[in-house]
Amino acid sequence: MKKLTLFFAVGLLLFLNGLSASTLKQECAMTSRILGHEVKYALYLPDGYTESDRDYPVLYLLHGLGNDYRAWIQQGEVQTVADREIRSGRAAPMIIVMPEAGQSWYVNSYDGKTRYEDMFVRELIPHIEQTCRARTEKTFRAVAGLSMGGYGSLLYAIRYPDLFAACCPMSAAVFTDGELENGGGPFADLFAGLFGPDVTTDHWRRNSVLELVRSMPDDQRGAVRFRIDCGDDDFLYRGNSMLHILMRERNIPHEYRVRDGGHTWTYWRESLPAALAFVSRSFRLS
Length: 286
Known about the structure:
Layout lengths: L1 H17 L4 E10 L4 E9 L12 E5 L8 H4 L3 H11 L6 E5 L16 H16 L9 E6 L1 H12 L6 E5 L6 H5 L6 H8 L6 H6 L1 H6 L10 E5 L7 H13 L4 E4 L7 H21 L1
Parallel strand pairs: 3-4, 3-5, 5-6, 6-7, 7-8
Antiparallel strand pairs: 1-2, 2-4
Helix pairs in contact: 3-11
């Protein structure tokens, strides 16, 4: 009887230990004066957040084109993955913010009608740091994303090296000049609305990740830790490969990973644990 009781107690303890005590808030919103409407976002709060007074590092996790702020929750299984990686010690306890971006490509449009980038930097980050127990130093802030969100993460990390310690683009929507000169492929109409009728204009160059890397000041090269991840069957392989080559030529420290896979949630779910571990190393270096 004693052995049975002990067995039951151990089993119950293991079961309870495996349960998630994190909090996932799917329907958060912030009123943006810059955009003139509410911006929805989802919020992951790690185990222990509600019981402690601790301030936590923050990862901004950006969605792709055709998705919304709930994509990382549903298709990406972010709560399950983050809980597991934090519990194992491979990732640091962190707040994860997943904002709605529509089809904005995370930029300010050429005509000034949509200023998503300004909203993100001037409103969203301060809002999160005012409403959550978030660390406000650069060393405790990171950005990551997939596809369109991978592009957005690169744009923000390169443009604002004083804001982010680490950047993890996954299957980033980085396009070469040659691809854009051919009309931008399936994104031609969208790009025309964001960057102007001719997507090789100055506005595009100001928002081109490859151009920003080419012109990056020497004293900025080590300001942000980068981890670039793209599948060998991904249609965005060319831009990601070129980004890696340019960073090598400019001696910009980064990690470049290519695995078997395409532009799929299967690939990104497998990428997320490595991204969480990578940004955690930045948080722990401080």
